[in-house]
Amino acid sequence: MADRIEPGITGARRSRALDWYGLITFCALITAQAIAIMTSPPERDMGHLQKILYVHVPIAQNAFLAFLVVAIASVLYIWKGKDQFDLLAAAAAEVGFLFTGLTLILGSIWGRPTWGVWWAWDPRLTTTAVLFVIFAGYFALRGFVDDRERRAQWSAAVGIIGALNVPVVYMSVRWWRTLHQIQSSPSTVDAIYVVGLRLNDIAILLVMTYFILKRYQAAKVERQAEVLQERAALAIGP
Fold first, then answer.
1. Which residues, at least 6 apart from 118, have a Cβ–Cβ distance to it below 8 Å?
2. What is d(CA 141, CA 134) in angstroms, rounded to the nearest whole number?
3. Rounded to an integer, what distance in angstroms lies between the CA atom of residue 234 and that of residue 238?
4. Domain hosting residue 70, numbered range
5. What is the pLDDT of residue 228?
6. 37-48 burial, b for 16+ CB within 10 Å, e for fewer?
7. How many domains is the chain partitioned into structurally?
């Protein structure tokens, strides 16, 4: 386990750099959304409802990427046993969990006028909900287990199992053809919507990266505080 305390000056510089990165990232997101909305005409069947595509699809795709980070960091923790990988996995899991929740909400907003219902037990929706529940369990586990090493080991196992569900979610629309359309990508949408979709893919990737880095930074501070408390308790003794 790494109990090293990061120097204050170095930590402050990294924090400022990350704040600047966050500002640039959110400016990029606003710009990408504005360009996509202003340059795309109403879709033939969905009208202006089509514009939810520029949020729903990139958020879903980046949720998958966040869970890929969870899987990689979890495997590295099991292999190396270093705290930093556990904290990175947990940070990425939080962002993936948030993005998956937003994906379900945005999908329901799109589904109500399109399908006539807020929710249908479509394979894509169901497998996405299962993914959301798995990571809700991941956080419950982290909250209930006090021992750091055991918590990290068990979390890594659940994180890997949860990430294995991502390919099932992605392929569900091809394995079981029901209500949900096939994956939306630049190769499956009209050319006039491609630029807006790509710009928002990149912008939300930057947002996801910022959220993970910010949460990882906060997790390191929390872990350092925990280490200091443990050292103080040992110094005082029984």
1. 108, 111, 112
2. 11
3. 8
4. 8-236
5. 75
6. eeebeebeeeee
7. 1
